[in-house]
Amino acid sequence: MSSMDGSISQGTAWVGVCALEEIPRQGSRVVATASHGEVAVFRALDDAVFALEDRCPHKGGRLSQGIVHGHAVTCPLHNWVIDLESGEAAAPDVGCAKRIPVRVEGGRVLMALRG
């Protein structure tokens, strides 16, 4: 069960951030990082895990406080729908939340952080 395993550059470390069970299905958890700031880690109903910078590209709303549905989250401020796999806003809205590579190994959620 992994998701968002994008290209990882040299100097990047995979860091354990929590157990998968600590993120509610169709919910999120916020992780504070030195390299990416606050990151929202989402768990879909099918246990897929995604991580995005915790800021909507529209007005900076906290995506972690949005509603998770399928592999998307709806921003709580102005209802923009953000695709969790790409970070892209659904049309007609235009914008992109920064994605952070994340994966699950042995029931632990790991995030790629720059070293």
From TrEMBL:
PANTHER family: 3-PHENYLPROPIONATE_CINNAMIC ACID DIOXYGENASE FERREDOXIN SUBUNIT, FERREDOXIN-RELATED. It holds the Pfam family Rieske. Signal peptide: none annotated. Gene3D superfamilies: Rieske [2Fe-2S] iron-sulphur domain. Residues 14-111 form the Rieske domain. It comes from the Bacteria. This is Nitrite reductase small subunit NirD. Keywords: 2Fe-2S, Iron, Iron-sulfur, Metal-binding, Nitrate assimilation, Oxidoreductase. It comes from Plastoroseomonas hellenica.
